[in-house]
Write a structure and sequence with these properties.
about 240 residues, alpha/beta, Spore Coat Polysaccharide Biosynthesis Protein SpsA, Chain A, eight-stranded mixed beta sheet, two-stranded antiparallel ribbon, about 25% strand, disordered N terminus
Length: about 240
Amino acid sequence: MGPSSDLLPPPSGQGRVAVGAVIVAAGSGTRMGGVDKIFALLAARPLLSHTLSAFEDAPAVERVVLVLAEADLERGQSLVRQGGFAKVAAVCAGGPRRQDSVRLGLAALGPCEWVAVHDGARPLVTGALIAAGLEAARETGAAVPANALADTVKEAGPDGLVRRTLDRGRLWAVQTPQVFRYDLLMRAHREVTQEVTDDAAMVEALGVPVKLFPGSRRNIKVTTPEDLALAAALLASG
């Protein structure tokens, strides 16, 4: 299914922009106990509204595409209209895998110089983090926010027995928004077909270096009711 015609005109009718964003929120949210996490209330607003607000307020971002599960399209379109998110040019249905959803979002977004791909379930993203990603991506064409791991990490086998302790000094927990040259990410989605967990892995498979830049401990991904409570506490703390 293509982008919604209820919002702004499709990308084919717009000029090329410098920076676009694809917000991916097409997952099933099975760990939320039957609650659709992206529409769960967070500080009296739908969680997704917080995410969209950060990109709406980011000066560099000119166009946004929201990717949802097909069953959520009408609800998402209503949220965009009621929230006055003028930068959202399209709301489109995702695919069976996350990378399929991103690819469909990129197609709806249309050509631009840079694209930021962000998880809709990370509502505490900030304009500063988006700007940092755009700056970092200029070095290699690809950049992702990441935090150094604080916990000891062990590798175990299917039997639950530890096989080895990994050097955490070389390990990073990666977040979004991940920022890429649009043409580079489109190439990655054309050429890399194996399943991956993030867009950076697809770019890495092309042999292109990906730059890490400092993430934020507050930029959590809401996947459980406990995460939602933590996000609320972080918002309340300012």
